[in-house]
Amino acid sequence: MPPDTWRMEIQPMARDERDIEILRRMTAEQKLAVMRSLIRQAYALKEAGVRALHPNLPEDEIQARTRAAVAGDGA
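User: That's the sequence. What structure does it adopt?
Assistant: Structure tokens below.
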């Protein structure tokens, strides 16, 4: 697939304005749902990173290191 086929046109100002309008129309409950989803995704990404860096760790240690990293204890 040629690069021009999948490249998105970048329009930062227009995009920001649309995003702000979408957020304004969302209820507090919807915003919290989005936030929870983003947090879960970030946690899963961190867990995948820990697993990639330490492929031989047992699952409980991967979970412990992930929790520590998310809590700000490094990893």
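The radius of gyration is 18 Å.
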